[in-house]
């Protein structure tokens, strides 16, 4: 069959530069030839990245592809990949059932769901030791940026709590068909040594989301809106804005909130 038509509704921009595809593939660590690591490619498209992944002996590549036309194309052009190509939505896949021993995630991620992909990785952080993705540059900067930057936000804090994040390289618009209106970037997430945060992890997520809910306001206002007035108690961070706090600061703040609201 011929070329797959890119579908705007699926956020598809097919990578056509083989050198970029090779660099993305090389950015992912693997296992060994004797014990290859399972890898899931999200959004295989026409297999530009897939072909390089399939050449590696230290990984076993699986694919998640929602577009039926792309699935047909991949089955025709990469028959050896067909048994491990799953037609469906990655965001709905039961990763624990499919990959009980863990899986690395890689892909030229559709822009319209890239944040959701990272939230799913975060949900399965005990299963996903590494994730390499090409995404919109703005989102990559947001995920990788340190505290104090105006891009720093909810996704930055939550991912940085559990992963070491590297902004690898920027990618121009012309290496895609059709070209997107923005630049792209490749980032790599590798699980850090944190097994558990030193606070209630569900409350940590609530505190982070509440803190950035009104990001122009001081934390005093954002947190009181979400949790009440804490009996009039004040925290030293209350006069700061959310973007100024590190992951460790948010852990400390969560411990304080937990003492005041009883969990």
Automatic annotation (TrEMBL):
It is an enzyme of class 2 (transferase). Keywords: Cytoplasm, Methyltransferase, RNA-binding, rRNA processing, S-adenosyl-L-methionine, Transferase. It holds the Pfam family RrnaAD. S-adenosyl-L-methionine binds at residues 13, 15, 43, 65, 89, 108. Its EC number is 2.1.1.182. Belongs to the class I-like SAM-binding methyltransferase superfamily. rRNA adenine N(6)-methyltransferase family. RsmA subfamily. This is Ribosomal RNA small subunit methyltransferase A. It comes from Alistipes communis.
